[in-house]
């Protein structure tokens, strides 16, 4: 029974540290808190069951393995596994450093410390207050910490570096805190450990700097897109104004011609004349009115560019909303562009959009015909376009949806793709 309680207690400490680091400090996205709770609880019971036949205490690495798997099952994106590995290695370095400091201060030896469970509990728990302090700092300065957006290549390289550091300081620890070592050896080992901790901190600062740079670049791209669509919008307004002036200039002549045809009972000619006049007036009609002028222009431009694609629009947007126009532009320009481009490649070319505002939320569903199934890469929808500079549209939409605490999904069935977004405004 003592073995089960000891192993379970040490595992829970390890699990708490990883949960704090991964989801409290780094804010790795999870599918749902409930799933994470179930996964963590299941791992605790698994450790208890295994401890009844095997002393996991003799294979301490298993604590980290079980804790990592408990978190992996709840991850929203499986590509976050690499970052989870990096975080666990960081915790290991902090644990080794804390252990060395405690043994240096209390003059403990490794042989002695491993014989007392109370000491192990204390040493393994020391990292938790440090992580709690970091969590409080992040909560206070949440706007200063952007979401991590680091490529897998960088994370792998940093993880390898951390692993090598961990092996190095572990070897030093075994040499310095066993019989025959001097106080100088122990101090040098602690200094080496603290150097590794500084390395971890520097790496995280580099991560934050890189993420912040990526975020700033995105904001620049968003602004550029907004300005581009605004430019098209004002050009469109000027064009319509010019066409309206020209029509008003000719309206007297048209009325005179209609009156003349009526006087001479030339009804067939009058019918043809009115039909021609109606065709001439069609360009003056701005087409679909979405409720937001900028979205009108986006829809108009894409309809002009893909003139053989049938468009249906249901519902009305409102400009009186807390959703920034830049974000509105990002969502509709990307979703509509993707929809038109995909529909253009089909025999049956159509795009349908449905919008509504209910209970303080904006609901958007854009569907289109498609000639191919969706492809996925790293748990996300992959672009089918070739060359560089593609594949960011959906990610940008996801960022906007996340900003407004909403939901986003893409489904493909029966030759149609449907993208649904819910934004809380």
From TrEMBL:
Gene3D superfamilies: Histidine kinase-like ATPase, C-terminal domain (3.30.565.10). InterPro entries: HATPase_C_sf (IPR036890), NatK-like_C (IPR032834). Pfam families: HATPase_c_5. The chain crosses the membrane at residues 6-28, 35-53, 59-75, 82-101, 121-138, 150-169, 189-208. GO terms for molecular function: identical protein binding. The keyword Cell division does not apply. It comes from Ruminococcus albus 8. Residues 324-417 form the Sensor histidine kinase NatK-like C-terminal domain. This is Conserved domain protein. Keywords: Membrane, Transmembrane, Transmembrane helix.
